[in-house]
Specification:
The chain is mostly helical. It contains 13 helices and no strands. Helix 6 packs across helix 10 and helix 11 crosses helix 12.
Length: about 280
């Protein structure tokens, strides 16, 4: 009987066009965020997602205030901010976390000012702030497919380069690897992932898709390749579970996905402790 109820709920979910679009975009963005998140977390840039989401909110607020296309404005602005973060972090006087704080708070302030000078906190701005599955369009689906193809190609074709840049950038540079080029690719793809993801997860929660799956996988596996595969699987599974819980309990989708990731992270830590005790 339980399986029948689950199938009926799944069929009902898929009967709505906005749910199909949300599931497609969310699964693809979750996969991209998890893959990129492993490298970002290991390079201690895990909060770049939070910083770029604040920049995205500022750009979206200005775009909505000027009646411009939100995606066409926010994507280039967030990409430029990601490149600027890389440049600032390379400066020894400005550390990575300080650079993220400088750019994100400035962009957030500009977004709040633009919002207050126009229509205030309207429905569109609110949905970008806290996320809304109703905001997904077919344009988001097509962009998500293209983004996922680029991220998978990066990790499949240039796996060894990404591994080297992630763990020892100085050694990779000494061996002739163009580390700056790969860092810019990661920053570019992260920026697009954040912009697409914040439409559903919201500005305040999108960074969880980057951080939680990577940390969960690192608590179970030690090899880079195994961590990548585990993080991707965990991220997609947690998104699906969060969306199902959101639909069944009528709670916000972004918060449900984060709760699912947090639960999975806690279980992975318990499993890691149990395995550690068993080995000892």
């Amino acid at each position: 009987m339980g399986e029948g109820v689950e199938r009926a709920m799944l069929a009902e979910m898929l009967s709505y066009g906005f749910m199909v679009r949300a599931l497609a975009v969310g699964a693809l963005v979750s996969l991209c965020a998890a893959l990129l998140g492993v490298s970002l977390v290991l390079k201690r840039y895990s909060m770049i997602g939070d910083g770029l989401s604040h920049v995205g909110f500022g750009a979206l607020s200005v775009a909505l205030a000027m009646n411009w296309s939100p995606l066409r404005v926010s994507i280039p602005v967030v990409v430029a901010a990601a490149f600027l973060l890389l440049r600032l972090s390379e400066n020894q006087r400005v550390k990575g976390d300080s650079a993220i704080a400088l750019i994100s708070t400035t962009a957030m302030a500009l977004g709040v000012i633009a919002t207050s000078l126009t229509t205030g906190m309207n429905v569109d701005v609110y949905s970008y702030m806290f996320g809304s599955i109703l905001a997904m369009s077919w344009e988001d689906v097509y962009l998500s497919v293209g983004l996922c193809a680029c991220v998978l190609a990066l990790f499949v074709i240039f796996y060894n380069k990404i591994f080297a840049v992630t763990f020892d950038e100085s050694f990779a540079r000494a061996t002739g690897t163009h580390t700056g080029r790969y860092n810019m690719l990661i920053a570019l793809l992260t920026a697009v992932t954040v912009v697409l993801g914040m439409r559903m997860m919201g500005t305040l929660l999108i960074s969880s898709l980057i951080i939680f799956p990577a940390l969960t996988a690192m608590g179970v596996f030690k090899r880079f390749f195994s961590v990548i595969l585990c993080a991707a699987a965990v991220s997609v599974a947690c998104f699906a579970g969060g969306m199902a819980a959101s639909y069944a309990l009528s709670i916000p989708a972004g918060a449900s996905v984060v709760a699912a990731n947090a639960l999975c992270f806690g279980l992975s830590r318990l499993a890691g402790l149990a395995l550690g005790r068993g080995r000892s």
